[in-house]
Amino acid sequence: MTSSGVATTFLVLLGLAVLIGPWTLGTANRLDRLHVRTDAAWAALDAALARRAVVTRAVAAVCGKPELRAAADRAERSARGDREAAENRLSALLEGLDRSVLEPALAAELSDAEQRVVLARRVHNDAVRDTLALRRRRSVRWLRLAGTAPTPSYFEIAEPEVDVESSTLTQRVAARVVLLDSENRVLMFEGFDPSKPDELFWFTVGGGVEPGEELRAAAVREVFEETGAEIAADDLVGPVWKRHAVVTFDGVTLAATEWFFVARVAAGLELDTSRFNDIEQQTIRRHRWWSAEELASTDATVYPVQLAEVLPGALAEWDGTTRSVR
């Protein structure tokens, strides 16, 4: 290479360094701040869970329920990897608790502790989502800008049912359908929250139940509107799952209750999405059919979070039980 060629190459590399350097430094700093935010959010969630355990022990003493105290102790002592299961066990016991026997002050304190867990979990998972969205960018992965920071993970626990009359949250009941093809793959749409267009997630067919509409009728309608497939109410199996979640979409916080049915469509279905409403047209990017194995191995955000885990059970004959999922 001639001296002029070397000089040209050097100038090109120098120019790239000038252009890429500030971006790299800025992205690395942003990622570092996101990791700090995630750590702080986990600390807040851990504190909220600990407070719930303390209040639960007080409730157990009043009600004479040693199993409730044992569940609170187990949840508080569990390692991070076992914490979700332990906290879900505690949530299930609290959901079945007769609160009418509690003094009003203690009942209010328990409700407050539960709602603080809901809010802290939402803040934590929002922080995790933002961090993962940046970490998953190709440029961030190629340049290894995350360094040695551990990959954060969502904390998924069942949330208490919201008292519709006293809650200030917007209520939303949805009918969802695990729509399967001849290869037992489930149809999923990829979309985003309008307020966070860079954070993509996958979700099943379905949507909100209209006033006065029955769940099965809503599920049939949603399948037709979103895919063009015409199915009958009798074609639906379930509801096989029920999901409670507090979510934020387009700046609105919703207390969501989702009921999941299973249905099959004929091979070679050509999707017709022309009936998408305005918000669906704006926020849904694409669709694809996922196998259980693909769902289990993907790094993408999928709702419900347990879909890969519970999908094989949905492929078997339904036993009539509606199970809670996260």
* Number of helical segments with 4 or more residues: 9
CATH superfamily of the largest domain: Nucleoside Triphosphate Pyrophosphohydrolase
Relative helix content = 40-55%
CATH class of the largest domain: Alpha Beta
Taken in chain order, the helices and strands follow as HHHHHEEEHEEHEHHE
Give me the secondary-structure category. Answer: alpha/beta
Integer-rounded radius of gyration = 24 Å
Question: Any idea how many domains?
Answer: 2
Average pLDDT number: 83
* CATH fold name of the largest domain: Nucleoside Triphosphate Pyrophosphohydrolase
Under the CATH scheme, which architecture of the largest domain would be assigned? Alpha-Beta Complex
End-to-end C-alpha gap: 61 Å
Adjacency order of strands in the biggest sheet: 6-2-3-1-5-4-7
Beta content comes to 15-25%
Write a brief caption for the model:
Helix content is 49%, strand content 21%. It is built from 9 helices and 7 strands; from the N terminus they run H-H-H-H-H-E-E-E-H-E-E-H-E-H-H-E.
